[in-house]
Amino acid sequence: MLMRTDPFREFDRLTQQVLGNAGGLSRPAALQMDAYRVGDDLVVQVDLPGVDPETIDLDVERNLLNIRAERANRTPEGAEVIVAERPVGTFSRQLILGDTLDTERIDASYDAGVLTLRIPVAEHAKPRKIRISGGSTGPKALSR
To answer: Which residues form the signal peptide (predicted)?
Structure first.
């Protein structure tokens, strides 16, 4: 249904924590997410605290879902920074969606710093009953 991508994501996250934004990472920071199934939907929740919803960009091409968002630095110019632990800049995540999902009907909402995507299971992938036709209810008697 959903395949994990980017085996180096955890390494990048740790490097970002150690080196911070000054680490010179060319890749955007990875987004933290949860994914689970509810009924006929795959639900993906992505943490985007402090992100303006206007900066969130979602696109899907075939079965690749791209999520990008940007959090601006809100420290006033000229302010003396005492602690700066909240990451700023561009964040992204790519998800490979299985063929069992309907990428034409993805629903997205953003509330309280969490982007929620609902991706329905495709009709062709849902279990269905197969009707059995013909046959008789019992053995036929032979006539002589």
So the answer is: none
